[in-house]
């Protein structure tokens, strides 16, 4: 297959996908194309979109690749969608941050850090699919352990959890 055709196919697949596509998934679809070639095509596409004035760009997020609207055009997109984007309450953000940094974490640990019952907030985050139950702790009662999801990475535009700011960086932002 010609490299330009591979790039066009990858571009079409990412465009049609509702969630980020991984190199592994692309390799399954493009059976005769090596992962190395797919990576080169993705890097080329990212560069092409970065060098052009377009309303969107291609980026690596949540372990895969996805098209994103450029921030400067988000107001126009909101008008199209006729409403404001789904927001997270301060309690949801606080709970989500605790889970992101401490995962896997028990509800009791979250409650202890926040100083209030987090059951309702955890339920809402589960409904939004930003967190998930990752297992149960091997203690009496077998309480559930919570962790973040791929959607969390996607929503916050992170490749993986290592891109979360460190506590030092957060402190510098506050100062």
Description:
With 175 residues, the chain is α+β, with helices and mostly antiparallel strands. The protein folds into two domains: 3-79, Arc Repressor Mutant, subunit A, CATH 1.10.10; 90-174, Winged helix-like DNA-binding domain superfamily/Winged helix DNA-binding domain (Arc Repressor Mutant, subunit A), CATH 1.10.10.10. The protein is 51% helix and 14% strand. The chain contains nine helices and five strands. The strands form two sheets. It has a three-stranded antiparallel β-sheet with strand order 3-5-4. Strands 1-2 form a two-stranded antiparallel ribbon. α5 (90-102) packs across α7. It is globular.
